[in-house]
Amino acid sequence: MSGTPGSLRTRLLLRIGAALAAVCAAMALAAVLAQRALLLDHLDGRVMDAAEHGLAVASLRPGDDRDLTFPAGNGHPDGLLAARLDARGAVTAAAVTRPDREPLTLTAGQRAALRGLAPDGTPHTRTVPGLGTYRVTGLDASGVQILAGLPMDDVRDVLNRLVVVEAVVGAAGLAVAGCVCAVVVRRQLRPLGRVAATAADLARAPLGHDRLTGLPRVAEADTDPGSEAGRVGAALNRMIDQVETDRAARRLSEERMRRFLADAGHELRTPLASIVGYAELMNRGTGPVEPMLAWRRVSAESARMTGLVEDLLLLARLDEGRPPRSAEVDLVALVAEAVREARAADPERTWRLALHLDAPALVIGDETGLGKAVANLLANARAHTPPGTTVVAAVEATAERRVIRVRDDGPGIPTHLLASVFDRFTRADASRSRRGPGDAGSGLGLAVVEAIASAHGGRTAVRSAPGHTEFTVELPPATATEGEPPLPAEVPGLSEQR
After folding, report:
1. How many Å apart are CA 306 and CA 373, to the nearest integer?
2. Spatial CB neighbours of 88, under 8 Å, sequence gap ≥ 6
3. How many of the other CB atoms lie within 10 Å of CB of 262?
4. What's the predicted TM-score (pTM) here?
5. CA 5, CA 13: separation in Å to the nearest integer?
6. What digits encode the pLDDT tens for the residues 21-63?
């Protein structure tokens, strides 16, 4: 991750630096204020001692408010400011001590800086022209009023030195802390930088190409769920997996669509070519084919093409998600009728109906569509089993579900076709050759079954082994009428072989 002005690292360092600087400034200010209060308290104590001493000396001559003999006494610090006040509080005399010299009498302008100070023992800060800043207090005893003050130069010098020391130490500390923070932030943001680099590589990857793998991924070390960067890396990897899965699914869908269009075109072209050929023969009026036979072949191919087109239209409608017509459908009557028709159409196989009813076999849906699904299952058994095969259509009804099962004892479905048996144009014979118009079907029958079941909120399944193949269609039950008795366990004339 670069250190550009807008980068996360730069913003973090600036904000951390600002926070550290604010903390250091606050600590320095607190230290200066605390030291100033301590020094002023100590200076005020000295000023009070000097004032008490001066008041004791001045009290020896209470009648002379111009007497300033007390600054000349021993024990006074250099720079002591002393003043006498009259009864109105006006300064009558003022002087300041000097080392090894006589006290210096204050001028009128300097005395003016002391006006308004009440002799009540409260310390005040006053700036005396030519002398500097003083800490001054006043006392009053029996009409004797004096002022005493000491310069604040020592306090200011100490505070100035403290500020310089704190500034130097603070700057050095901020520099060291900034370097440490820069190193720590850089190391902590490395995983995020690698994740960002992976995201940039992914953005440059040719996602529109047919390549299904090879997209850049975040390293396993950068997907630790215990850190924010790790969670981002893991989420990016999941997104990449989803992208590759979607690309694979899209490619598979495109391949299936191309296969679907090719198969549909072939399935439509074959009967159409046959119809055109026989029509040309009949138009000529001569040929090896009798007109009646030609008309039968034309009718058969037309019916085949019509059925294929109807199946395609039905699948298209179901793919659009159109809800089927809703009406109460009795599965027993539906399956029984389909078995009767299969038995009439194909007497070479044994067709049976089995009922296992613990509740009325009622569902809500489109009776025509459900009938087509059952008919397709029986037609599939007829097309892919040899003569003499026994086909059983069973209806199961419980309180929770309704199930239609079609099983046979034929040779079974090849293992490699089981996973795609409900796909469109899936056939046991992958070639497109046909020996006759009814051979092997178009490969849409089971796809229609699966689409109809899904449209009714149900599902399909298949199990197959040599000697036992079973297709299952499970549907949600309809709400049974209160007190309605279950249907009989057998339907006369269908539960026995014919």
Report:
1. 17
2. none
3. 12
4. 0.47
5. 11
6. 899 899 989 999 999 899 999 999 998 988 888 888 777 777 6
Asked if residues 215 and 205 have their Cβ atoms less than 8 Å apart, the reply is yes
Strand order in the sheet with 132-141: 101-105, 91-98, 81-85, 144-151, 132-141, 124-128
Which letter, b or e, does each residue of 356-384 get, where b requires 16 or more Cβ atoms within 10 Å of its Cβ?
ebebbbbbbbbbebbbbbbbbbbbbbbeb
Cα separation, 48 vs 147, whole angstroms = 10
CA distances from 105 to 102, 241, 412 (A): 9, 94, 130
8-state DSSP, 382 = H
> How many angstroms separate the CA atoms of 281 and 292, rounded?
12
In this structure, the chain runs to a length of 498
Tens-digit pLDDT profile for residues 204-257: 777 655 555 567 777 777 777 777 777 888 888 888 778 778 777 777 767 766
| Token couple for 437 | 């118009």
DSSP letter string over 79-129? T-EEEEE-TTS-EEEEEEEETTEEEEEPPHHHHHTTTT--SSS--EEEEET
**How big is the chain by its Cα radius of gyration, in Å?**
54
Phi and psi angles of residue 125, each rounded to the nearest 5 degrees, phi first:
-110, 120
Is-contact 293 334, C-beta < 8 A?
Answer: no
Tokens of 132: 């500097």
Nearest 5°: phi and psi at 85? -120, 145
CB 53 within 8 A of CB 75: yes
